[in-house]
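Below is a filled-in request sheet from our internal design queue. Each sheet records the structural input a requester submitted and the sequence that came back. We keep these sheets so that new team members can see what a complete request looks like end to end.

REQUESTER: design group, bay 2
PRIORITY: normal
MODE: inverse folding
CHAIN LENGTH: 365
BACKBONE (tokenized):
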């Protein structure tokens, strides 16, 4: 199957894609799987995609990071930073440039475009569902994403291939490697959901670790909207005692970090020994000042996020930050799909997580 594998990477994911390609080449004793492409812009800001090699009859994997705001393009003499909308348009241009010739097209989009606009509560657009239907209509066979904000987006494509991959294995491995003094029992460790939406992820972790969980309920001001959302009035905690325990807060993303800081503060006020954060996507859209101050105040010990989205250079230098590398896992996903093998063990790797925890407990005796 190696001869028909092709990888097309948009500029937004090019660094990770190069490493993923190298891993696949090593596994398969090949030279290269990346098909050169570019998405140039006209002076008006309009764009197009140009593929520099044939994709006919190939199994194509297109990689894109819609959160990468470090890329700029020139329009009317000025530079604009690319927004998620710009990245999504370039993704569609790549698919259109394939011109229906590949054997199969798989889009790997770690952060699901418009994933936070997943439901309608009034007269508003339903952007994520429309995006998924649009990709299906363009001829995309599979969509791979990670820790979607709402896993029910599966329902948009009941007959299509959409895989929502859990990052729980990589977080478990990174955490237990870094903190060998962690005691995995219900008296010393608790997983905490910062809101109702994170409950399913926290239940998954807590059940595999065999410990208890807690949850914060976001009380919002539904009479007002600020920056597109109803502002949070307070976080109410539901759970047992945290006195002397290690607490792990699990969520899909860190945006401004305001909610995270409030949650960490309440956890510390309840007597937690240490506070750790697992978040698949570290966007840090309001900078680092508030996060830095919270760390200096001792509200948390470490933040773990993945390299699935663009990481700001200053983030990588933070003492409190740990980058969880997902390159080999993405390579394994591509390798598995290209060989037409089952994705079950990769999408939710419960067995491997249990084995990792068992090895850790065995080495701690």
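RETURNED SEQUENCE:
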């Amino acid at each position: 199957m190696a001869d028909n594998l092709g990888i097309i990477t948009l500029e937004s994911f090019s660094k990770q894609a190069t490493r993923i390609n190298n891993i696949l080449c090593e596994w398969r004793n090949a030279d290269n799987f990346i098909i050169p492409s570019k998405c140039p812009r006209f002076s008006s800001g309009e764009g197009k995609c140009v593929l520099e090699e044939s994709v006919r009859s190939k199994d194509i994997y297109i990689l894109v990071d819609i959160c990468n705001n470090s890329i700029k393009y020139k329009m009317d003499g000025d530079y604009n930073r690319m927004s998620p909308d710009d990245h999504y348009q370039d993704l569609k241009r790549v698919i259109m440039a394939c011109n229906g010739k590949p054997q199969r097209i798989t889009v790997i989009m770690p952060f699901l475009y418009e994933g936070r606009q997943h439901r309608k509560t009034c007269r508003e657009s339903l952007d994520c569902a429309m995006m998924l239907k649009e990709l299906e209509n363009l001829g995309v066979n599979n969509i791979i994403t990670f820790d979607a904000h709402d896993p029910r987006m599966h329902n948009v494509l009941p007959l299509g291939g959409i895989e929502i991959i859990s990052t729980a294995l990589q977080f478990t491995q990174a955490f237990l490697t870094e903190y060998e003094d962690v005691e995995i029992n219900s008296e010393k460790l608790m997983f905490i959901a910062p809101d109702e939406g994170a409950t399913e992820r926290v239940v998954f972790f807590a059940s595999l670790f065999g410990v208890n969980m807690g949850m914060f309920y976001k009380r919002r001001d539904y009479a007002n909207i600020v920056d597109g959302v109803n502002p949070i009035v307070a976080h109410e905690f539901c759970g047992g005692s945290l006195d002397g325990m290690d607490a792990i807060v699990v969520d899909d993303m860190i945006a401004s970090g305001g909610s995270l800081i409030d949650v960490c503060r309440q956890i510390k006020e309840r007597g937690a020994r240490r506070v750790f954060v697992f978040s698949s996507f570290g966007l840090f859209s309001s900078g680092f000042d508030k996060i830095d101050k919270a760390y200096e105040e001792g509200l948390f010990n470490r933040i773990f996020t993945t390299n699935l989205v663009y990481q700001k250079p200053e983030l990588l230098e933070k003492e409190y930050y740990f980058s969880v590398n997902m390159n080999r896992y993405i390579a394994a996903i591509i390798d598995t799909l290209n060989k037409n093998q089952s994705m079950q063990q990769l999408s939710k790797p419960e067995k491997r997580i249990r084995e990792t925890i068992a090895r850790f407990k065995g080495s701690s005796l």
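SHEET NOTES:
- The chain has two domains: 2-165, 168-324+352-364.
- The mean pLDDT is 91.
FILED BY: M.R.
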